[in-house]
Amino acid sequence: MGRPPVISTAGLTKHYGTVHALTDLTVDVGAGVTGLVGANGAGKSTLIKILLGLLEPTGGHASVLGHDIEHESQDIRRLVGYMPEHDCLPPDVSASDFVVHMARMSGLGASAARERSADVLRHVGLDEERYRPMGGYSTGMKQRAKLAQALAHDPRLVFLDEPTNGLDPAARTDMLRLVQRIGSDFGIAVLVTSHLLGELEQVSDHVIVLDGGHLLRSSATGEFLQRTGSLLVEVVGTETERDRLGEALAQRGLTCRPRGAMVAIDPPPPELAEGGAVHDLIRDVAADLGLGLMRLQPDRHHLEDVFLEGGTRV
Amino acid sequence: MSDLSPGAGRPGVIHDLGYRHFDGVREDTPAIARTLFVTGLRHAYGLGRSGKSKVMPFILLAMSLLPATIVVGVVVLTGLGELPVSYADYTNQTQLLVSLFAASQAPVLFSRDLRHRSIVLYLARPLPAPVFAVVRWLSLTLAIFLFTAIPTVVLFAGAMLSGLDKSDQTTAVLKAVVLQALLAMMIAGVSGLISSVSLRRGFAVVGSVMALIVLTGIVTVMQNIAYYEGDSETVSVGVGLLSPWSLHNGLANAWDAGVATPVPVDGAWVPAYVIVAVLLVAACLLGLVARFRKVGSR
Fold this sequence. Notes:
The complex is a heterodimer. Chain A is elongated and about 75 Å long. Chain A is 39% helix and 28% strand. Chain A is of the alpha/beta class. In chain A, helix 3 crosses helix 4, helix 4 (110-124) packs across helix 5 and helix 6 (169-184) crosses helix 7 (197-203). The mean pLDDT of chain A is 88. Chain A folds into two domains: 7-224, P-loop containing nucleotide triphosphate hydrolases (Rossmann fold, 3-Layer(aba) Sandwich); 227-301, Reverse transcriptase/Diguanylate cyclase domain (Alpha-Beta Plaits). Chain A has helices at residues 44-52, 73-79, 95-105, 110-124, 139-151, 169-184, 197-203, 221-224, 239-251, 270-273, 277-289, 303-311, and strands at residues 7-16, 19-29, 33-37, 59-64, 67-68, 80-83, 157-161, 189-194, 206-211, 214-220, 227-235, 256-259, 262-265, 293-300.
């Protein structure tokens, strides 16, 4: 993209005694939405705290928005927003008052803080309930209030630590849509963590995968989801029908295996791959067997595969 | 990126309006610290918080003002030649109320953010943890100082109204105010440190009451026993080093500010009292800074 990276780390390491939270992490994060994926304890929160200057790294360097984390952490904290993973809202204050106060703590004047808070609360979708004490909020409303305080001072980068934690599916979708809008419409760079890979597939432009403090992979989301060359076929009926189709296709020289209700066909030999010959073959086999063809689609990689591949690394 | 992108296909939904960036002036760190200081001071009196939280501080303040207004009434009406109680001794006489104020309001400034973990949100902003701790302490110090100084001002106004000697009264009042400032720093340090460690409000209040009220009671009893029963002036004065209130009273006695102690504090005891008072404040501040640093890195 030609623009300098928003976050850049070099050999970043953090050890707590014998526990290695981060090991030699070298990675660049650009504009837009970047997903940071890893199981619990993979080092996601540790990385964010180091970047905020709240934790000192054991070794290595990092810069955020062009500021060095070691010497200019105060400048960094002026320009970034942070939504922590855990509950952090005082129950006896209204979201409106709280977000105003937090905006002031980021250096906004009294009237600017009020104006921005009203704006941001509207964007995250807290309406009338913003005037009620936050102790009575549902988890979804709490997550919105936490997000609002992270955006109140118009940061250039936000760290969102597990923003979908504890949300029901509908609220989860809403939150993810909001995260995506922050990256695209608001023009704020986002580093969002999750242990659910599927979520980040939907919203991120770029994904960084951490495992046990190590960098497993960092690349554009599209690359993770490239076609594998395999095909997935589903027919009407139960497993019996699925297996009949699989066996028939195997006799025609294709390598098949069952996957759920579908048959996964490994990349076909070159003579069949050309001009969709393999698609015709599948259609004909299904027709011969009298099976109703329901779905025929190219298989894609999933973010999960990175972990499966990474598992062999150790 | 577009600043004013229209809501994508859902014009009826209010939060789909465009996002506006903020390009106004951002305050520097001292200005942020000042905002935190003022907010903390207001919160110590329940201002800007729920109606319920104003009850305790203002009842205590009213109770500590009531005797002062009565004294003023008596002095003005009867034309007494002097105040029946010195300024510094008035603070000492109302020590239970002052200690209760500190014990009940310190958790507001030092426990809440830690208990609800909102401290993380503060520390992810420009103010560093040590500055945050010191600013909180300053808020509580000024709140306690005002609590002791307001009755003093009422007494002084009464003294002036009844035509008592202006220069004598001014000297006495200034001494009392200096002592109150030192006292406020000590009490804010002790109750703040206790509140920042014991996050449950109840425990914090009980802890501060133990340290400020019970301990002072024990020290006073020991001072009297040592003097009247044990015949030991040294022990009596020495024990006075153990509590903020006995330090305040000892220094007031040494400075001739009108507070009686079992044994007069003089000679080498005076610098000892000053040093212990300063060390107590410094130790509490160091403890608070260490505490907030530790919490910030979790």
